[in-house]
Each structure stands twice: as C-alpha cells, then as structure tokens.
Design brief:
The complex is a heterodimer.
Chain A lengths: L4 H7 L7 E6 L2 E6 H17 L7 E5 L4 H13 L2 E5 L7 H7 L4 E4 L11 E3 H8 L17 E6 L9 E5 H15 L6 E4 L6 H14 L1 E4 L5 H8 L3 E4 L1 H16 L6 H13 L5 E4 L6 H9 L4 E7 L3 E5 L12 E2 L3 E5 L4 E6 L14 H5 E3 L2 E10 L5 E6 L3 E3 L5 E3 H8 L5 E7 L6 E7 L6 H14 L6 E6 L19 H7 L1 H5 L5 E2 L2
Parallel strand pairs in A: 1-10, 3-4, 3-5, 4-7, 5-6, 9-10, 9-11, 11-12, 12-13, 24-25
Antiparallel strand pairs in A: 1-2, 7-8, 13-14, 14-15, 16-17, 17-19, 18-19, 19-20, 21-22, 23-24, 25-26
Chain B lengths: L3 H13 L22 H15 L8 H6 L3 H11 L5
Helix pairs in contact in B: 1-2, 1-4
The chains are: A alpha/beta, B mainly alpha.
Chain lengths: 512, 86
C-alpha cells in the first residue's frame, strides 16, 4: 500500500514547514504539524496507560479542538477505532459508552459525578499531550479492509446508523480528491464542520500527508475566524455559503460610490480573506444562484455529491465543472441506475459492506450488492459524464439548510382531499417544496385543491411548507409512463413531464 | 434614550434581517431567532457589530454568543466591552 494516505500518516512525522491553527472565539493556537504529530504520540501513550489497545473503540464527544485532532491521530497510530459524536446530536456520554462498546469516551463537556469511569475529560488529554512518555507508539500498518472510524448517518428518525469506514475507502477518496484539487504547500484548508464527520478529518490528513497548512474552528466561530485565518480553501455546506452570500450582498450594498461588481468582490474578500483558491460545498444540494453569485464575486465554488455510505461520489473542480451538476464521477467509483432511475454507486474500495449499528433490514436496503450502494437519489449523467441529481426517490428531502423533510406524510395529507388522487412532492430549488397533484377527475377542482393546500400547510412545520401545487395535465397513468404497473407514481417520470412548471415561478396554485 | 451601542446594534440587526426591518421597530426583548436569524447569521451580525463598536471578538466565547438571545442581551454584553478593540 505505498500510496496509502493512512499508512503514510502512521509511518512517521510529516515533513516540516507547515502548520495547523485552532481558532475559537476568544482563542487562537498555532503549532507546527511536526509538533502536532509529536503530541499525538504522547496522547497515544496516554491511551495505552488507560488500557486502550489495538482494536478497541474510543469515543469523542466534543467541539472541534486541538485535543480532538490529537485523539484521532493517536488512535490511528494505535489501530484504535474512533467513534466521533457531534455535540448536540448526541448527549448522554454514559449511554454512548454502553451502546457503542467504548473503552473510553472523551468529552469537553462537564462530566457528572455519577458518570461511568470510562468517561474522561479533554483536560486529561491536554495534560497528556504536554508530557513526555517513555515509550512512543510502535509502527503499525493498515490493510485496506481495516476500519479506522465509525461514521454516523444523520438519520431523520430513530437512532443514527453507524458505519465502519475502511482504510481503502479513505485512501481512495483522498487520492481522487488530491488528483483533482492538488492541495499543495501554499494552501491553507479551513475546516469548521464537526470533526465527528470523517470527511472533515480528511483535510487534516491531507495537510500531514501532502504538506500544507490547515485551520480548524467551529461552526459558531467560522465567520469570525475567516478573516484572520486567510485560508485558500473553505470546506462548507450550502447553508454556510447562503449566509455568506447574504452578508456579501449586504456589505456590497453599503459601499458608496463603488461599481456593483467591484463592491461585491471587495465584500467577498472582506469576508473570506484575500487568498481563496476555491470553496468546497457538499452534504446537501446547493442553490445555483448562490453558486453563481459567489463565483462572480471571485470565489469559485465547487459542488459535489456523496453519502456517508459511499464517501465522495462525484465532484466539480477547476478542471471540469458544469453548472447544475455535481461533477464527474471520481476515479474508483461507478454510477449506475436502477429501473426507477435511482442512482447506484459501485466503489472499487467500498466504505463498507454493511452498517455496524442499525435496525434489521437497514443494511440490506442500502448495500444492495458487493460494493454497490443504493443512494435513493434520482439522477442522470449527461453526454460529457457530468452527474445531475434530480431529487430523492424515497420520502426524505434534504433542504439547502440541511434540514430533512419526510414528504410521504405531506403527500398523504394532500391525498385526503377527494379532489386529489395522487400527490408527489419535489424540492427543485432545495429551499421549498413543490407538489405535483393528479386530480381525481379530468376536470380538476382547483378550488378544492387550493383549500387542501392551505390545510396541509397549516398541519406541517416551517420547513415542510408546499410553496405551490402544479396540477398535472395529462394525469399520470400507466399508459403515459408516469405510474408503475402497481399504480404507484414514478417520480422521475413525473418530474420530467412537468419540470418546467415545477421549476418556474409562475405556474400552479400558490400557497397564500 | 437609547445608548450609542443600542443604536448601532439596531442598525446592524436591521441590515442582517431579510427582509430588512426598521431599526426603530425592532424590539429589544424578542428572541433573535424569532426575527428569523439563524445561528450563522447571528455570528455574522455580531462580527459586523463588533467591528462597528470597536469591540475585539476575542472578548467573546461561543457560550457568550449562545447566551445572547435577544438584542437586549447583545447590547448589555457588548456595552461592557465597547471600546476594547484589538
């Protein structure tokens, strides 16, 4: 495994000359990557002193910090598996120890007096990092199928599913990304999303392996940290870039006597600093207008696509990008489509073959064949190999703000009206829902449909509001290909038939 | 009579809201989230406000930010630090 990023990380210290900064509101700390690596050796020795051994699992329940990174690197050097828990989504440390079989769980939160002995504080980690220990960790070598971390999917209902991420999949993803983005010596990658998301730790592994700087902060401090950090790359999500666009727009509007384009660019530099090479967005569909705005403001932004279960599938990048797409499929991955147009992904190095923590049947629904994952998304690949995502095939829609909306209850509520035979909800602009309604008769009762729209919106939350209803004409049928032989709506076909009405702002019955 | 801090805070919050609200109409004790401010927008609002007030952000922690739930909280907290620029 000479190209293995993980094995290069654990084989020895990084080349000198690069640094990592940890920025919080009220504090900033910078250290050389060589020093980071040395301290991770101290933490590894500390873990061993606690009885943690190769193959054990440790938990980390904390905000982004130096100690988080040290624990992760220490665990890698000991072949200990890390389970990262996002604060706020996971709370009871003692319960996590029991549920996930953790040898130790480290947290930056207050530890109650009655917590299990396995729950320890970050203060202990910070102390250990500063001490010299007699025996540094010995060399380890990973095989591709070995697991380094448990990734948790942010499920919309029930307990999150847990998935072991293999070294082979991490290596493959990082090598594919490095091939297209070429992170190098002058780069500083800005990380603010939770480190419990394995992909955020990729950027730190990248710094150690490929030789560049990194900045780690928190979601809350991100905008405040950007200006001083002066990164070249920012790893974000649509909601973050939407907020950035609003701020740039506001700042530009306040600039007196400056041409609009110049004001926008100046405002963009004020917010992001003057060294941005590109912005990275993923995790949820991005608003095309936001992407266009930021690019025009001098901040090239590239959208990609992937799931926890597949890692990164496709990515736009400076060498190949297309508006509206999520990029070309990465090396080592293959995109297929089932009979409903649902995207399947085959990976040369799968993240895994099944969940480690999930309900019965969950693994079988997602991991459909050897190395193949059923994404649940609808899409297509154009003639130049760019992947386009059309929406979710199942009943969960991810909005641009990251919120998940289960549409089936909304659709069922709409169908309680005698005037509505079928209802399918889409989210074409990632910010609001549009319903396509098949009326009960060829002469649609528009008044009754409008009344039902109002009743349904009144029954659901803010993120579940239907912005407008498109009344399907012709009505979906088996004959016209919009219904299956079991009379179930074929979402992709319905979307394709009414795409113009769905995506424009004029047609349909609009919510009041 | 509103303080200078309050006046500047009202103007900044008004600019941060979409659509913009009349600064004079903003109520001090309404939760910022009820004005539609997301957590990200709150940090941006505070960042700009601290710049305008010459308050060093280093005086604030994430906990301080979380506990500033209303404009009243913001004005109280930043009034203590006003003038302490970096």
């Amino acid at each position: 495994m000479t190209d293995s990023v993980i094995n290069r990380l654990v084989a020895g210290p990084p080349a000198p000359g690069h640094r990592i900064s940890f920025i919080r509101l009220g504090s900033r700390r910078t250290l050389d990557l060589t020093e980071l690596y040395e301290q991770s050796g101290h933490v590894a020795a500390y873990l061993r002193s606690l009885g943690v051994e190769s193959g054990d699992r440790i938990g980390i329940l904390a905000a982004n910090s130096l100690e988080w990174v040290l624990l992760d690197l220490a665990a890698l050097r000991l072949k200990v598996v890390v389970a990262g828990f996002e604060p706020g989504k996971f709370t009871d440390a003692g319960e996590l120890v029991a549920r996930y079989g953790l040898t130790v769980l480290f947290t930056d939160q207050d530890v109650p007096a009655d917590a299990p002995a396995a729950v320890r504080t970050f203060t202990d980690v910070a102390e250990a990092a500063g001490q010299a220990w007699p025996e540094p960790p010995g060399p380890v070598v990973y095989e591709p199928e070995e697991v380094t971390t448990i990734k948790f999917t942010s499920g919309s209902t029930g307990a999150p599913k847990g998935l072991g991420a293999t070294v082979g999949s991490i290596d493959a993803s990082m090598q594919a990304v490095q091939e297209i983005f070429e992170h190098r010596g002058g780069d500083n990658l800005f990380v603010f999303l939770p480190l419990s998301l394995l992909q955020q730790r990729y950027w730190l592994y990248s710094a150690l392996c490929f030789g560049h700087d990194a900045t780690v902060t928190t979601y809350e401090a991100a905008f405040a940290a950007l200006g001083t950090a002066r990164p070249t790359v920012v790893m974000g999500v649509p909601a973050f870039f939407e907020a950035a666009r609003q701020q740039i727009s506001q700042d530009a509007a306040r600039a007196d006597g400056v041409a609009p384009e110049a004001a926008r660019r100046a405002a963009a530099r004020r917010l992001f600093g003057d060294r941005i090479r590109y912005l990275w967005t993923g995790s949820a569909p991005a608003d095309r207008e936001v992407l266009r705005y930021l690019t025009d403001a001098g901040l090239p932004i590239y959208e990609g696509y992937g799931l926890n279960e597949t890692c990164i599938i496709s990515k736009n990048h400076p060498g190949a990008h297309r508006e509206g797409s999520v990029g070309r499929v990465l090396r080592g991955k293959e995109v297929l489509f089932d009979e409903d147009g649902v995207i399947l992904v085959r990976s040369e190095h799968p993240v895994n073959q099944r969940y480690e923590f999930a309900e019965p049947g969950d693994s079988e629904r997602m991991f459909v064949a050897d190395g193949v994952v059923r994404t649940g998304d609808l899409g297509y690949v154009d003639e130049d190999g760019f992947l386009f995502i059309q929406g979710r095939a199942d009943d969960v829609i991810v909005l641009g703000n990251g919120k998940k909306v289960i549409v089936r209850p909304i659709e069922e509520h709409m169908r309680t009206s005698p005037a509505i035979e079928e209802c399918v909800v889409f989210c074409p602009a990632q910010t609001s829902l549009v319903a396509v309604v098949s009326p009960s008769s060829d002469t649609a009762d528009l008044e009754a449909i409008a009344e039902q729209l109002a009743r349904t919106n009144a029954s659901f939350g803010r993120d579940e509001q239907i912005r407008k209803v498109v009344v399907a004409s012709p009505r979906p049928s088996i004959a016209n290909g919009m219904l299956t032989s079991q009379f179930k709506p074929k979402r992709q076909a319905i979307f394709a038939a009414f795409q113009s009405e769905i995506t424009n702002n004029q047609d349909g019955i609009h919510a009041q | 009579m509103p303080s200078d801090v309050e006046t500047i805070a009202r103007e900044n919050l008004s600019a941060a809201l979409q659509p913009a609200a009349d600064p004079h109409e903003i109520q001090l004790d309404i939760e910022l989230t009820d004005y539609g401010l997301t957590s990200l927008q709150k940090v941006l609002f505070l960042t700009r406000l601290c710049e305008d007030l010459a308050v060093d952000l280093a005086y604030l922690t994430e906990r301080d930010v979380a506990e500033m739930r209303t404009l009243h909280d913001v004005v109280d907290t930043l009034s203590r630090h006003a003038g302490k620029a970096s």
